[in-house]
Amino acid sequence: MADEKVDEVKSEAENADVPKKEPENLVVDGYEFLSAEDVKKAELDKQKIEIIGKKIHSTKVSDLEAVYEKAITNKIFSTPVGWYYLAKLRDKLIGAGVKEEDLIPIPINLKITKVDLKDEYHPRQYITPPPPKKKKNVKAVVFVMGVMNLILLAMVIAMFFIALSAESDNIINYKQNVTNRYAEWEDSLKEREKAVRIKERDLKIQDDTDYGKDIDIDESE
After folding, report:
1. Is the CB of residue 53 less than 8 Å from the CB of residue 71?
2. 22 contacts 39 by C-beta, under 8 angstroms
3. Contact assessment for residue 56 and residue 67, using Cβ atoms and an 8 Å cutoff
4. pLDDT digits over 12-52, tens only?
5. What are the distances in angstroms from CA 43 to CA 20, 31, 53, 77, 81?
6. What digits encode the pLDDT tens for the residues 60-111?
7. DSSP 8-state code for residue 109
8. Which end of the chain is more exposed for a tag (fewer CB within 10 A), N or C?
9. 14 CB contacts (<8 Å, ≥6 apart)?
10. Using DSSP, how many helices (H) and how many strands (E) does the chain show?
């Protein structure tokens, strides 16, 4: 019966006409609150306490314990005004012989100290600080640059070597190839002139041109 009356107290207090005007001060039963909204909640808790006192007249320990537990389970009170009433009721039950460990603790639904809880939500930061720049190792950079320069130099030397040894003409070996081909052509021409002179001699053809004067003809041929 006691717990049913507690439910009636909660419904009756919430449906009761609460003055709409703003309070002149923020103090309720010796507690000073920070906002008018908190004052209204404290006034509502005060009304609930008065209704409980009017509806529940039993002094039986079991009934008082049922009221205490029902008020906590149903979260009847939400301000220090109501918590103080529960604390007095708790002391009364302990004084009547109820063991303290058998009573539900009074929950305080506010955080006294600013401490981050494990399950507390933290919004994600949209602006993340840039990562710290790593200091460059000067010696390592110089070593890597030196190795790269040596590799490039070796590649250039290899390109020149390939170009010089190539049989096809290119910008590097063009002059040398032309000179070699000219020398080959000149030797071939001299051989042909020599053969012509020998043939003229055999045929006893007189030729006074001097284009073959530098050609040595062996008389035994």
Report:
1. no
2. no
3. yes
4. 656 655 555 455 688 998 889 989 999 999 999 999 999 98
5. 12, 11, 16, 11, 8
6. 888 889 989 999 999 889 899 999 999 999 999 999 999 999 999 998 877 7
7. -
8. N
9. 44
10. 6, 2
Do 36 and 2 form a contact (C-beta atoms < 8 A)? no
Distance CA 191, CA 77 (A): 128
The Cα 116–Cα 122 span in angstroms is: 9
Closest CA to 183 of 194, 191, 173, 195: 191
- Residue 82 CB coordination number (10 Å): 22
Closest C-alpha among 131, 140, 71 to residue 107: 71
For 109-131, the pLDDT digits (tens) are 777 777 665 555 555 555 666 77
Residue 134 neighbours by CB under 8 Å, 6+ apart: none
Number of neighbouring beta carbons within 10 Å of residue 59: 9
Residue 221, token pair as written in the block:
């041929």
In this structure, what token pair is assigned to residue 57?
């007249």
Residue 212 and residue 193 in contact, taking contact as beta carbons nearer than 8 Å? yes
Report if pTM > 0.70: no
What value does the mean pLDDT of the chain take?
76
**Apex CA 90: angle with CA 84 and CA 92, to 5°?**
110
Collapsed DSSP state (helix, strand, coil) of residue 208:
coil
